[in-house]
Design a protein that fits this description.
Length: 384
């Protein structure tokens, strides 16, 4: 049976306080508790989402203000509350804006008052989630219309966007980024500006061919054009920020207005877009990552490092095989690139096969069930 109680995370360096909270409120709320602020932030990412996080103000290592401020960054939708003693009230009041705190409660706080405050916070979390869901549904309608246009005018660009989305979603989940939804949407929209590219440049971009300086300058505008095209859509501020920053170096760029640092979402997208460009151009997956590692300052080291690990894990224990199309299943990888009759790359070698790609192989490429396809598949387990 599913537990419908709101999930609450409590942080206090006094274990007896936490035990009292759990004892008095366990019927109303699903409570996790810890005496350490850093551990609380780990729990927030590992076991989330939580409706509410409640932190004491005065704690060793990390103060309650630091815990809630970092919680706002890591899990921005979780509602934040603070418990504090009367003596610390001026400090707590001055720090409220740093953590964007929903409620400030004074110790000792009667269980009934605490329960009512948590219930209000949990209800606020629920209402905000419903509003986000409605806004996302509205946004997805606009995005589907835009990607439908891209499918008609630049199908190779849409295929790249889908591959970038899959890789970006995996990398964002691996790093437990709170911006995962925005990163996936930005990935799907990242190639929308291809509609403005001259056909010859678009062909070279999406076939992974080498570009001259003029062509590269045009290719670099693709995500900027995409950001402009979605400017009228609601709740796209973060998505536009990712798209506008993809081509910034990882360390930032000095401008007259100050230094521009690419947000983590933009750094994830750049790694995935550049990787796809190199693989479509014919480089094996790990050779493509090696090539990227020599581009000094282009990528955030940890982002590229984790992406490399994910690709290496994906390729481990794989074997090459020739199979009938009817026997190919989603989850395998292409062992050879697939090209349209026009010469455009439909899917590069090393791409994970999806149900959508299988359908394209049958319809767009006209392959029959008995067509032979080279794939990479998991090595069959040896009999004991």
């Amino acid at each position: 049976m599913t537990d419908s109680r709101p999930r609450i995370l409590c942080v206090d360096d006094e274990a007896q306080v936490l035990e009292g909270i759990k004892l008095n409120l366990r019927k109303q709320f699903d409570i996790q508790a810890t005496t350490d602020g850093r551990h609380a932030l780990e729990i927030l990412l590992r076991d989330g989402p939580f409706a509410v996080i409640i932190s004491d103000l005065r704690m060793p290592n990390l103060s309650g203000v630091e815990v809630l401020a970092e919680a706002a960054r890591r899990a921005p939708h979780t509602v934040r509350m603070m418990l504090t003693g009367q003596a610390d009230l001026p400090t707590a009041m001055a720090a409220i804006n740093d953590g964007r705190i929903f409620r400030l409660l004074l110790k000792p706080c009667p269980p009934q008052n605490l329960a009512e405050a948590i219930a209000l916070a949990a209800d606020h979390y629920r209402q905000q989630a419903e509003e986000r869901s409605l806004a996302q549904a509205t946004l997805m309608g606009g995005i589907n219309a835009l990607t439908g246009t891209l499918a008609l005018s630049r199908p190779a660009a849409l295929n790249r966007a889908k591959r970038v989305r899959d890789h970006a979603a995996e990398l964002a989940a691996d790093r437990r980024l709170p911006e995962r939804w925005s990163i996936e949407i930005a990935a799907m929209l990242s190639q929308l500006g291809a509609v403005a590219l001259p056909p010859e440049i678009a062909r070279k971009v999406y076939d992974g061919l080498e570009l001259n300086e003029r062509e590269q300058a045009a290719a670099d505008t693709v995500t900027l054009v995409a950001a402009k095209l979605i400017a009228s859509l609601p709740r796209t501020e973060e998505i536009r920020r990712f798209l506008e920053s993809i081509n910034l170096p990882a360390g930032g760029l000095e401008t007259p207005q100050g230094k521009r640092i690419p947000p983590i979402g933009a750094q994830v997208l750049r790694v995935c877009v550049d990787y796809d460009q190199l693989v479509v151009g014919g480089l094996p997956p790990m050779d493509a990552i090696c090539e990227m590692s020599f581009r000094e300052g282009a990528y955030e080291t940890e982002v590229l490092g984790r992406f490399s690990v994910l690709r290496r894990n994906e390729l481990s224990n794989m074997e090459s095989a020739e199979m009938l199309l009817m026997s190919v299943s989603a989850g395998m990888m292409l062992g050879e690139e697939l090209r349209l009759t026009s010469g455009h790359v439909l899917a590069p070698r090393g791409m994970r096969i999806t149900d959508d790609l299988l359908q394209q192989m049958r319809t767009i490429l006209g392959m029959s069930p008995t067509s032979i396809v080279r794939v990479m598949r998991r090595t069959p387990a040896k009999a004991a």
